[in-house]
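Lab notebook, bench 4. Still working through the backlog of constructs that have no structural model yet. Next entry is a single chain of 117 residues. Request: give me the structure tokens for it.
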Amino acid sequence: MRRPVGLTLLTAFFVFGALMAFLAFLGLLLSGGFLEPIWRLNPDAHRALIELGMWGILLMAAVAIACALAAIGLWIQAQWGRRLAMGILAINLFGDILNAVTRATCGPSLGFQSAGP
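Model written out:
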């Protein structure tokens, strides 16, 4: 059976998300280390995650694990993988909407906030 292109692209999206969340996790865990420059991309997220302390580190670990599991589930075309992926996307959409409302911004949201607040 041939894998649908959309499923392959969605799997790649979650692999990318898992890698970025893992880098953020390492950047928080090894604060001041060689990964410190990555926070120039989103200094607000860095400040917010630092304020959370250990919870911020655990949050990024959970996001990385969830994205990796979704990628695996999608790749093997398991029902739980599709459900997990949809759940992650729904939570991200809710967070983006909440962020747009609380910050009163009308700019586009592309899901980049999934790696931090």
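Notes after review: Confidence is low (pLDDT under 50) at residues 112-117. The radius of gyration is 15 Å. Flag for follow-up if needed.
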